[in-house]
Design brief:
With about 190 residues, this protein is of the alpha/beta class. It contains 5 helices and 7 strands.
Length: about 190
Amino acid sequence: MKSDREKWDRRYSDEISDSLSPDPLLLEFRELFSSGRALDLACGLGSASMFLAGIGYWVDAFDTSEVALRKLMNQLVRKNLSIGVAVVDLDYYPLQRNTYDVVTVFYFFSQRIVASIRAALKPKGILVYSTFNYLHLSDRPDFCRDYLVPPGGIGRFFPDLHVVADRESSEENPAISQFIGINLAI
């Protein structure tokens, strides 16, 4: 059985990274973002990372794929952006507590890291999360259920965050759940 890193390296080795657009969820809620420190988990080719860096955030971009991060670093040079990148296995990597003004997660879900994601947010920090839910099994019955948002949506995993948006199914794709929440703790 191939490791997660090998699987994702193989996938990203074939993907072109020249014209990446940020996820529409980031653009829809653009007014929430200003500047500070951001964390892009499972960043892939880094479209969210580059978007956030472009509007003034210092970004840490984490992914398990060295291939994806190498492509991201090439884009950073071309666009004259500075982002911290690290190859990490999110299932085992401890996130720094109370560190980030924004945390983004696109197309990765694991209940094991929910508490760590929540703890990484500073007071008034924003969580932006969009990923596959249980309806994805109709398209991909072989997809690992552990990496799918169960019925009830993402927001139920972050009950103490102030809800800006909590969509169990997005309008564009019912198999995608989306959540934006703000840490109102002091």
